[in-house]
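Worked Example 4.2. Consider the chain below.
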Amino acid sequence: LEIMTNKCSIPLYPMKPFDEIITGPMAARILQVIDDLNFFQPSKIQSQAIPILNEQKKDLIAQAQSGSGKTVAFLVSMLLHVDPEKHCPQTICLCHSCVLIMQTFKVFEDMNKYTKFTGATCINNNADNSEAPDGKAQLLFGTPTSFTYWIKNGKLDVSQVNFLVIDEADAILDRNSTLFPSTKSLLNKLLPQNVQYGFFSATFKNSIIEFIKKKRSDIITIRLNRNQQRVQTVEHWYTKVATENEAFCAIFDLVTSVSKGQTYVFTRSKKLVKEIADFLEPK
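Applying the procedure from the previous section yields the following structure tokens:
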């Protein structure tokens, strides 16, 4: 695990339990929901990112593979940045697709069980029947183009925003992305210049790192290697198959015999998703 500033490496935070890295007025409520969700200990990315973003109040680039706990890390940090007395946008999360927005918002709703902050999505724009996001929402989740549209049209006040998360930052900050111009506008003009940044992604091109560091030269960078993702309370194993039919049968065995609860199955295409779903559907 590397933790770097522009000038030098900094010491790693020791692996501590959640109740030692989540601090502040809302800590007890967040810790309660973490306990409800059966999160027994923080992952490595959580143990490093949460203190940097909340105790140190530093800007952060956090690179870790999918499944390493990045979403919980930045959602906890977003919740800790909210002043419950202010009923206006204070933290924003940028996502590159509507699907990811809704997935992240669902996790936020689960995490917000006891804090009971107001949250909203910012997705639609330029449509005759679209509505501006709730101006009293304390946490907002949306696409860069939607935010720029509503801010420029005077329908969204972001003057009190203190923390910006960009999830899947490699996709959003790619100069060839259609989202890059609106994101650049948010960073350069539309959001307060003292807003704290949190960039999260599984990969970062050097050009994107350079772009970020031109804006915040002292930003801290965390890079989590693949072999450092494992949480001690999670068991990892795999099986090899020779054919697609063997793969389907292995998935069936996992879902019906091994899994004790909800099971997620990831595939490389929508077509394969449908085929597996059809195979698993009770006949």
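The mean pLDDT is 88. The longest helix spans residues 244-258. Compare this with Example 4.1 before moving on.
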